[in-house]
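Why predict the complex rather than its parts? Because the way molecules touch one another can change local conformation, and only a joint prediction can capture that. The input here totals 457 residues.
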Amino acid sequence: METVEVRGLGKKYPSFELRDVSFAIKAGKITGFIGRNGAGKTTTIKAMLNLIHPDRGEVDYFSLPLIGNETEIKQRIGYSTGTLNWYPRKKIRDIAAIVRRFYSTWDDGLYRKYLEMFSLDEGKTPLELSEGMKVKVNLMLALSHRAQALILDEPTSGLDPFSRNELLDLFEQLKKEGTAVFFSTHIISDIERCADQIVYISKGRIVAALEKAEFAARLSEAGETLEDTMLRLERGDLNA
Amino acid sequence: MRNILIKELRLSASPITYFFIAFGLMFLIPGYPVLCAAFFVTLGIFFSFQSAREANDIVFSVLLPIAKSSVVKGKFLFVCLIELCSLVVMGLAVALRMTVLQNSPVYLENALMNANLFALGAALFIFGLFNWIFVGGFFKTAYQLGRPFVWYAAAAFLSIGVFETLHHIPGLEAVNAFGTKHIGLQMLLLAAGMALYAGMTLLSLQTACRRFERIDL
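Output of the joint prediction:
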């Protein structure tokens, strides 16, 4: 069963258009959402979280349309953005104390577990944390309420190779527990390392939304790595 | 609603907003336009909107498992709570001036407006203007603060000017009554202030919910 289904999303801006974006995210799978800067990854994720209003298309979570079931759906999903941080001068402990009030599934035991796993000091403020640690705080908040689907915008951007590796290991672990992990990135090696499915977006259109092996079989030429394939496609083969 | 209000109080609010509630005590200052107290209280609330914007508070709130309209209602609840707290402070000052201080020469010889029940009603009117022009205006974009605040400030100071002038107009001296004189009129004017406050706030809340539902974040 699809955990998240995105169908025909479209949004027109003066200088950019998201066109007919469709893909599905499955439980117990890691889906990498890849595309260069400005390809439409964040716009798609914003539409998936109802932060922007698409001109066309729908998003369903757990077979429920997002519009009309937003409150219930948001109880069951987690999100993280690599670029935004919340309340830079408030302590993590205080932010978590507020967040926990909104989730009926909040688990203090899990909160403590991830606090320890990520080596986070809850007495610190986001301002005192590195970019990588901020991503971990967002993830910790999402995981502490047992999110069944994680929607993560560029979680690995700004992370050092060690932290990136740790994060990708965590994705693998969450996948084993049945969580649907969806993350956007422009770092192809992240996708190569852990994704089961690849959703590739270019200039606001989905080029491919396939299992990783199928993606390589359909789009890669002999001897090409995923990175070579992407670079070739971005250089112009898409228009060929 | 309780949770979103707690979020407003503990995460979104700037500490200066709470401090500015004390400006209600300006109702005790003789020879000073007392309604400026209401403006200072709203200035304190403005600081909370400013710090909340810097903390990405609106996007954080929208991502919580609540309806978008609850985010707007949470802001209005917070604003009204601060305004009503300051109104209590102003009310205490008015009670003092209407009773033990009613014959105090510094107040009796004051050319400016007296702090009586009418002044409380006028303060409520200014709070209503804030809720209508500033808070409602903010939710047109959920990030632009300057323009709605300038419009509100212009309306607030114009209103203060009008309220300060009223008792100098022949026939309207009763609005500046001391102690319990003209108490019926005083209570009527306070009730009018309450009604205008409630009307402007509810109207603004409805419009803000509708606007906020439509904007992209």
